[in-house]
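A.,

Following up on our hallway conversation. Structure tokens first:
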């Protein structure tokens, strides 16, 4: 019962949001004065983007070449002074060819679907506090995370306060982690997959353009499905059994620490460094840690923005469930470097991107190593954005 208490918040948020549009007097939130009602104006914003991406990678296990088109739309609404809403959807079209020695559904080829990235309501009853529920876009650590991003049914609360130039934030989240496929198991209340985290963060901003942020996130995965275990074995994790009988060899509970430092110069250029380190307390040493460091420089010109970054990473096999890792780094039991370049035309909101990833197998003796091989990934793409209203 305790496990679903937080999810009752999500339903309450949705119900209160719909009812509040009929009568705000029926809530326990502070009533608006006549002056407040005159000053407040509902606000709606919408944007869309069209992107084309080509991706190629091959190794001793997989050979994949595909192109992908995505039409995305984002909508934000301010219904009341204390109630916001957000909807983010994308239609994906994929064409290409892929062959895999083990028929592993890796690499994302063949995906043609309408994806719901976020559909949420956010309550802001007073300054410094907010609560959100629905389908949420989740990054485990707000500064830099090796897990995600993922979109799950979830509820979250957060509170923040300013102490001089430092902003302190505490947040908690609980969600249902969605696996890459759908489980055929009948799940009762005691086996509902859950993901829970809690984060403390401090952020410093100065008038000189210098910024510093640090955060620590405690995370727990419980009762993960056999589908998630089967997918993760082929992506880097240690698993017992196969198919519907697959189980993760280790549970997942631990900490992820992250820090970011940045400097914005007078000409608008920005240099930044972000780093994160993760450790699963329930897996043995040599299989339970992950880390990455991202160095980025953004050049601001009159008509263009140019950004380049390089990210060395090292992810051991059982640091976290492989199926929830970013595929850009090859999931888990990998080490290597990601390099990306973006060029944006400010006026027309057109962005061109190029990326290269070298992802080698970290432990060739790991259980999942038979499904893996050293890999190089090449990515080219272009994206056009447009404000709808």
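Then the amino acids I'd put at each of the 389 positions:
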């Amino acid at each position: 019962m305790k496990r679903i208490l937080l999810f009752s918040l999500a339903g309450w948020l949705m119900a209160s949001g719909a009812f509040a549009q009929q009568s705000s007097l029926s809530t326990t939130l502070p009533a608006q004065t006549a002056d407040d009602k005159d000053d407040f104006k509902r606000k709606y914003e919408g944007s869309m983007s069209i992107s084309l991406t080509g991706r190629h990678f091959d190794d001793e296990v997989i050979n994949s070449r595909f192109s992908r088109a995505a039409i995305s739309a984002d909508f934000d609404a301010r219904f009341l002074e204390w109630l916001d809403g957000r909807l983010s959807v994308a239609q994906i079209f994929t064409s290409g060819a892929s062959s895999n020695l083990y028929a592993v559904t890796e690499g994302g080829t063949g995906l043609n679907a309408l994806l719901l990235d976020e559909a949420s309501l956010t309550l802001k009853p007073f300054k410094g506090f907010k609560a959100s529920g629905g389908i949420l876009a989740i990054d485990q650590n707000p500064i830099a995370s090796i897990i995600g991003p993922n979109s799950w049914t979830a509820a979250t609360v957060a509170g923040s306060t300013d102490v001089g130039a430092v902003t302190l934030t505490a947040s908690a989240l609980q969600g249902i982690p969605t696996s890459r496929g759908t489980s055929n198991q009948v799940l009762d209340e005691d086996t509902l997959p859950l993901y829970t985290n809690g984060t403390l963060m401090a952020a410093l901003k100065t008038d000189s353009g210098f910024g510093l942020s640090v955060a620590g996130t405690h995370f727990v995965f419980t009762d993960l499905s056999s589908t998630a275990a089967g997918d993760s074995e082929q992506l880097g994790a240690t698993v017992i059994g196969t198919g519907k009988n697959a189980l993760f060899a280790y549970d997942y509970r631990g900490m992820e620490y992250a820090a970011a430092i940045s400097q914005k110069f007078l000409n608008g250029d920005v240099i930044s460094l972000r780093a994160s380190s993760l450790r699963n307390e329930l897996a043995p040493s040599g299989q339970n840690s992950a880390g990455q460091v991202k160095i980025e420089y953004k050049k601001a010109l009159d008509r263009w923005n140019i950004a380049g970054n390089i990210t060395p990473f090292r992810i051991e096999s059982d640091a976290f469930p492989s199926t929830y890792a970013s595929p850009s780094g090859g999931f888990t039991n990998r080490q290597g470097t990601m390099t990306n370049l973006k060029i944006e035309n400010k006026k027309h909101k057109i962005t061109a991107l190029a990326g290269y990833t070298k992802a080698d197998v970290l432990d060739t003796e790991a259980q999942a190593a038979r499904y893996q091989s050293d890999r190089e990934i090449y990515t080219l793409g272009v994206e056009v954005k447009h404000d709808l209203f």
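The chain has one domain: 2-16+126-387. Curious whether your intuition agrees with the design.

B.
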